[in-house]
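Hi P.,

Sorry for the delay on this. The queue was packed all week, but I finally got your sequence through. Input first:
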Amino acid sequence: MTKAAVYQPGVCNIGPAEIRKRRMSGWVGLAIAVVFLAVVFALGWAASWRLLVALPIFLSAQGFLQAAFHFCVGFASRGLYNFGELGSEETVYEAEFRKKDQRKALLITVLAFAIAAAVAVVAALIPVG
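Then the structure:
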């Protein structure tokens, strides 16, 4: 078993099956964002509407970041980890481990929000014409 394939508080709380699931949600969010922007620009919608791309981009960034960090934000908030099959979560009982997990979850969420905000602002600033 590799070092990354075991629970490490604040570092790694998901294994290969969960990582694949997070990566897939990243691709789904990205696809939704691309389709949304294609429609918005094709129809010439106002810049304020283009800001809505932040929602699927946030989903995408969360998915890709969780996959890259081998860390699930939702599991951290519920005090869980999973290195087995999907649906076979285990509980984190140590309070200090839960705190470390929650700090990592917050970092991932802040990074995803920053990415979503940056993409939305760029989308809003692109001139339509």
